[in-house]
């Protein structure tokens, strides 16, 4: 398949073509998360609270997989833009092997630490049991999930966005179908409760890997896996990890944020922890859609950067910010108009619905402006500037919001935590513009150097 379309097609149609399949697939993925939470909430509020508490660990494991895969995506796309097919295949082969290893390590570590982690946030043994029963099964699928995500990014680097859309959608649909069957024991299926939700999620995560393997054989992509590259090479590992580690930290920071915010909110009421968990389920629908745009432009930025098309890179970034803002505007309108309906999906408690509705209205005030730091962070990853991207994420998830949440909660109570969200997004937008402009001005046009074996 000719990859020149990435640097010859008009920018707006190109961004739309690359982004809409991922935006759709991310939206479907968010929908299955919401559906998954809906069915778990039917078990009990404690089961839903358990999912809220274990979210940071689950998100961290996912972040390791996606973050490293972002490194694979950026390196493969860059080498393809340069026309260095051998190096691109080396990056892909090294990347898939290392991803499988990451999954095995994550599976063992997460299962071991989960009881300890849950005990740190709740004394309710029922909640602890719900959480460990879920994760003991879910993390058994970690290796398959890591490999599926790596394959996703390799296919994306080759421009096969529709393929990844259909593969992700298939996994999500299977999960949605299996959730009620395995949780409640419908028909011939056993009643597994929260364990059933874990099994359904694990199968849904594995299905894309099966699809990618079949398509790799039947509809080959320009990047091939080679036996001669199975043994990871040090210089390639450095390149993959230099971007991948920053990508992992970018994605893992929300886990730290949620854990600390849970600690602040739990001092007021477990109901606020529940509300925060529901908010993250709902906002996932929006931010995963915007992330679809980020995933669409990341290989475009890397490919055009490798091909020396710097003006196209700038156009791609500008158009992507506009597209993201449109998505976030829709989310803002919904959260302002029907927050009670959204909260009512997860609970029938009137007091929680009222408090949650107020929280959604306040937090959504920062949705539109957040388009700027989200897109600029993703564009920097495509340019191989993982450190600068990480700085933006640190500002959004740690350095600004956590002190603001603590300080405002001391003044306003739990409501202060909700105000910290929009205040942080406003400040992060300004800072991210400065960081991006400085990074691009300083050396965005440099190529990979072979003397120090890293992207600069």
Mean pLDDT: 84
Structural class: mainly alpha
How large is the count of helical segments? Answer: 17
Q: What is the rounded Rg?
A: 21 Å
DSSP strand (E) fraction? Answer: under 5%
Runs in which pLDDT lies below 50 for 5 or more consecutive residues are: 444-456
- Measured between the Cα atoms of the first and last residue, the distance is 29 Å
The counted number of beta strands is: 0
Major sheet attributes: none
Silhouette: globular
Bin the helical content: over 70%
Order of helices and strands: HHHHHHHHHHHHHHHHH
Furnish the topology, listing elements before pairings:
Blueprint: H1 5-8, H2 11-43, H3 45-82, H4 85-119, H5 125-138, H6 142-157, H7 161-184, H8 194-218, H9 234-266, H10 270-306, H11 310-337, H12 339-344, H13 350-363, H14 371-382, H15 386-399, H16 401-412, H17 415-443
Helix pairs in contact: 2-3, 2-7, 2-10, 3-4, 3-5, 3-6, 3-9, 3-10, 4-5, 4-6, 5-8, 6-8, 7-8, 9-10, 9-15, 9-16, 10-11, 10-13, 10-14, 11-14, 13-17, 14-15, 14-17, 15-17, 16-17
Please characterize this protein's 3D structure.
With 456 residues, the chain is an all-alpha fold. It is 82% helix and 0% strand. The chain contains 17 helices and no strands. It has helices spanning 5-8, 11-43, 45-82, 85-119, 125-138, 142-157, 161-184, 194-218, 234-266, 270-306, 310-337, 339-344, 350-363, 371-382, 386-399, 401-412, 415-443. Helix 9 (234-266) packs parallel to helix 16. The radius of gyration is 21 Å and the shape is globular.
Primary descriptors:
disordered C terminus; 456 residues; globular; mainly alpha
């Amino acid at each position: 398949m000719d990859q020149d379309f990435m640097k010859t097609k008009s920018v707006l149609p190109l961004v739309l073509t690359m982004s809409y399949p991922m935006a759709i697939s991310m939206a479907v993925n968010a929908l299955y998360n919401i559906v998954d939470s809906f069915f778990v909430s039917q078990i009990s509020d404690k089961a839903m609270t358990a999912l809220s508490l274990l979210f940071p660990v689950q998100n961290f494991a996912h972040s390791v997989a996606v973050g490293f895969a972002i490194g694979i995506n950026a390196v493969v796309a860059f080498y393809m833009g340069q026309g260095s097919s051998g190096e691109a295949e080396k990056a892909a082969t090294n990347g898939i092997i290392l991803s499988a290893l990451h999954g095995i390590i994550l599976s063992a570590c997460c299962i071991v630490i989960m009881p300890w982690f849950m005990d740190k946030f709740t004394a309710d043994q029922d909640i602890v049991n719900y959480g460990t029963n879920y994760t003991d099964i879910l993390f058994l699928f970690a290796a398959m999930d890591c490999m599926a995500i790596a394959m996703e990014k390799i296919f994306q680097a080759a421009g096969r966005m529709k393929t990844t859309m259909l593969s992700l959608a298939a996994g999500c649909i299977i999960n949605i179908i299996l959730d009620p069957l395995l949780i409640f024991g419908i028909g011939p299926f056993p009643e597994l409760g929260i364990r059933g939700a874990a099994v359904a999620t694990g199968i849904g995560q594995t299905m894309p890997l099966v699809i990618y393997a079949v398509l790799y054989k039947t509809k080959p992509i320009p990047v091939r896996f080679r036996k001669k590259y199975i043994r990871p090479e040090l210089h390639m590992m450095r390149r993959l990890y230099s971007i991948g580690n920053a990508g992992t930290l970018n994605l893992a920071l929300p886990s730290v944020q949620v854990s600390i915010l849970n600690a602040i909110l739990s001092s007021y009421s477990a109901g606020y922890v529940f509300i925060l968990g529901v908010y993250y389920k709902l906002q996932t629908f929006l931010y995963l859609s915007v992330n679809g745009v980020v995933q669409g432009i990341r290989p475009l930025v890397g490919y055009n950067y490798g091909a020396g098309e710097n003006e196209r890179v700038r156009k791609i970034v500008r158009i992507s910010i506009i597209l993201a803002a449109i998505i976030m505007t829709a989310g803002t309108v919904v959260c302002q108009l029907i927050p009670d309906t959204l909260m009512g999906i997860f609970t029938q408690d009137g007091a929680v619905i009222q408090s949650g509705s107020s929280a959604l209205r306040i937090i959504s005030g920062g949705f539109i402006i957040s388009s700027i730091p989200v897109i600029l962070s993703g564009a920097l990853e495509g340019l191989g500037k993982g450190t600068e991207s990480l700085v933006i994420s640190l500002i959004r998830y740690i350095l600004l919001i956590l002190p603001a949440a603590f300080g405002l909660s001391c003044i306003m109570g739990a409501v202060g935590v909700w105000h910290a969200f929009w205040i942080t997004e406003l400040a992060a937008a300004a800072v991210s513009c400065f960081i991006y402009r400085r990074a691009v001005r300083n050396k965005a046009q440099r190529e990979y150097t072979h003397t120090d074996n890293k992207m600069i």
